[in-house]
Amino acid sequence: MVQAAVGFAQKNRARFVDELKSLLRIPSVSTLPEHAGDVRRAAEFVAAELRRIGMENVRLIETETKEHPDGHPLVYADWLHAAPAADGKPKPTVLCYGHYDVQPPDPLDEWKSPPFEPEERDGNLYARGAVDDKGQMWMHVKALESLMSAGGGKLPVNVRVIVEGEEEVGGEGIAQFVREHGDQLKADVALVSDTEMFAPELPTLCVGLRGMIYTEIEARGARTDLHSGMYGGAAPNPFVALAQIIAKLKDADGKILIPGFYDKVQKPTDAELKAWKALPFDEEHYRETEVGSSSLTGEPGYSVLERTWARPTLDVHGMPGGFTGAGAKTVIPARALAKASMRLVPDMTPAEAFAQFKAYVESICPKGIVLDVRLIHSGDPIVVSTDNAFIRAATEAMREVFGKETVFVRGGGSIPIVGDFERELKVPTVMMGFGLPDDNLHAPNEKFHLANFHRGIESIVRFFGAVGA
Amino acid sequence: MVQAAVGFAQKNRARFVDELKSLLRIPSVSTLPEHAGDVRRAAEFVAAELRRIGMENVRLIETETKEHPDGHPLVYADWLHAAPAADGKPKPTVLCYGHYDVQPPDPLDEWKSPPFEPEERDGNLYARGAVDDKGQMWMHVKALESLMSAGGGKLPVNVRVIVEGEEEVGGEGIAQFVREHGDQLKADVALVSDTEMFAPELPTLCVGLRGMIYTEIEARGARTDLHSGMYGGAAPNPFVALAQIIAKLKDADGKILIPGFYDKVQKPTDAELKAWKALPFDEEHYRETEVGSSSLTGEPGYSVLERTWARPTLDVHGMPGGFTGAGAKTVIPARALAKASMRLVPDMTPAEAFAQFKAYVESICPKGIVLDVRLIHSGDPIVVSTDNAFIRAATEAMREVFGKETVFVRGGGSIPIVGDFERELKVPTVMMGFGLPDDNLHAPNEKFHLANFHRGIESIVRFFGAVGA
């Protein structure tokens, strides 16, 4: 059945890509209210396809949270009729997770082809969401279709599918659903394809993720915008204040100065550190081709992989307010914002990290300035166990497709749902992703290497087969 | 003749305000390219009125500078037929200066009535440009009309009028014209109404102005926008870099840390400092009603008037780049900007100040960041002499209108043209302005107190009379 499903997938490659393109044309940018209709269209697109391929109980589940009162819907589907094994034991249930929302596409002028008009170039498919996560989520759907088709409408395992539309805005909707209706997602393992391979041709499982807190610091000075000629020297300047605050958050080397911030940080195991050293990683090549800056930054004494996988970091994403047009406006703005986030590692908790951040920022607030320090969203850091049958099934599946041993890495980004699955559903997650390091996630010219799209589908088909065997 | 002109102005008050409203409806925002047509319409509006009231040689003079290749036009007019005095001596020539361009109106949502729909409330006229400088420039035109009308088409002095459309973007067009065609502006004194009265009912002449340099610091890190989860801890962050730079430009007290920046600063004379101490200034009232911040900032050891009139200052106006929308985008932007300006006082020069700024900023550039430090525009600081017949004529004119002695103050803002007139044309400037401290220049809800509009016209009529006597 697995071999027939692989054959089906191979024969239908062109159609699978065409369908993905249709999905990518929907600008489902979850953070921008003006795209709410598009986000819903993307949900309906996914639901319709799950229904078409033979999944059951397909429905949209509305979400409503404090953060997003008009939340974007979850897409749910299941198929729970896998024949028990010869010994009568029921087959395991796999919970497939993905997200259909995408990051905003700006800056638009840096895209070579428009972000919502998918274009194939050099074996890659370029579009916002190509790899994060529409393309990878679509691999799940297409693997299920291939198995359904080869199995005469049956799957080798029980499957539930949950696809969210708020991953890029914190995912509070699905987190709340998992907390309140975990029974509807009962499973033995979760499968998440929202990560990348460490290098081309190198099958990779991600076994650790950083958590995060995304914050806004709002600084208010004068009651209204003032003329910097008339009031410069007397009125507090919110941008200068934010600069003074930000400059005290990290030292010149990149060490975070928030008191207590590193207290709970766990060092990776010696075995893990040793394995990371063996990975094919060339720091100079990484600087040159991936980052493209004159030099790298970060805490001295740690390798790049340690700094991005196993150390907390702090970044500023934008500083709205004041005058941002071309030319000159001599204003002392009444208020300014800094959007700052911190990545967390085990055993830090978002709640404690935010409390430390807020207390410290408030303690260094410059004269004449009033601050409002807000938590926009957060996610737990996690490390998953590598010692279970599902991880073994995944490595086996990828070995067959790639002909190579799988490497275990961590990811620097956050997939908060993995922590929720672990904590609320008590299920381990297999993070089997097929992105590449140069896929430009969250940046202009995001792409998905199409060979990996197809290898991903085959790997997932084989994973289901191995789990069901 | 002067008395008849004052009578004419009083009879035509309503019409004068209506005309000003028509001018204020034209959104002549010089810094925004999309308003170029509006800026020209405002120039044509002013030229048409100068022609109608009987001024001669009225014309638009196109400007073209490196900064603004498609510059906004100057409006020129003259009337040079004043009858010589009884002893045969020719009457002096007054050069009236104003500007018809305005600052951008943002943030729009803080305006109580739309910025380009003038509205009268409580004796004030609210609109962008009401006082800076359309309303004050219009006082000149209406004073000339009143004198023309009372004098049967004649004025008591020779008059040239030059009105620019680039004051809010650096005024390089008029500066170039003054340098290259100074002979066309030959005069004995310049009259500038672009300043304010120190307090309501207190006739004020401004005798000193701060200069300025307006700069942009562009910081570039990675080649493209990167995901802060994947690259946080390795990729340089341009916002963090700009924050580190800005935090080193001023200390916590507001002292500028740029080496050599204060070297050329001249202390005001003891007489000037004594006069400032005698001005009706209540720091707590100023903090509460004008600034509205929890406390004032600035260099310790200097009064607010010294800090805003006679000390250099540094402000940040906006920090474009990165993600500024609602919600969260976890991007490490490839580039970010800081718009920063410094106010200069005698005897600082913009060229030296910018060189010091640029060298210092480059010397503290953080690792992994490439900087581009640009000068957007600049203006000289100036102090004008108070010992001449024109200043005496102005104080006399205002004493008649206000019934009070005139106070001499400085302004914290910049009117670069005053320096150009002094340097290139060798003429002193009388800065007789009728704004009020709470007029919200460059801010939402800009206004002009209409009583001051009318008293300004009368004062200018009397000034022309006194100069011609």
Automatic annotation (TrEMBL), chains A, B:
GO BP annotations listed: proteolysis
SUPFAM superfamilies: Zn-dependent exopeptidases (SSF53187)
Entry annotated with the keyword Metal-binding: yes
Domain Peptidase M20 dimerisation: 208-367
A GO term, aspect molecular function: metal ion binding
Keywords: Hydrolase, Metal-binding, Protease
Protein name according to UniProt: Peptidase M20 dimerisation domain-containing protein
Highest classification ranks of the organism: Bacteria, Pseudomonadati, Acidobacteriota, Terriglobia, Terriglobales
